[in-house]
Hints:
Helix content is 23%, strand content 11%. It has 3 helices and 3 strands; from the N terminus they run βαβαβα.
Amino acid sequence: MNKLIHPLRAIHLDFPHRATDPDVGRDFDPDAFAATFAEANVDSVTVFAKCHHGHLYYETARPERHPGMAKGMALLERQIEALHRRGIRAPIYVSVQCDEYAANTHPEWICSTPRAAT
Length: 118
């Protein structure tokens, strides 16, 4: 039987930011970030690639990249690398379907009137 030294602990890091939030990730310290989870015996931290606002948290030329992140700031990549150095899994969260960015960019996609039952 495979016995765990400590119970499996998984965290879903809820990390969405509105488009108006400035300096996203500016003070991010990868070592302190990963150390906090390691000290709490966390085995897995789900980190955001795309939040429900529709923003991307990695380095990309896509317009959905969070406008409050400095150019060259690869926040997602830095989170994953820091967690992996501590042996912590880092699955990514990707919000799918309509989101705030998509709704603002394509208002014709929004369903604002309920359909009658058929």
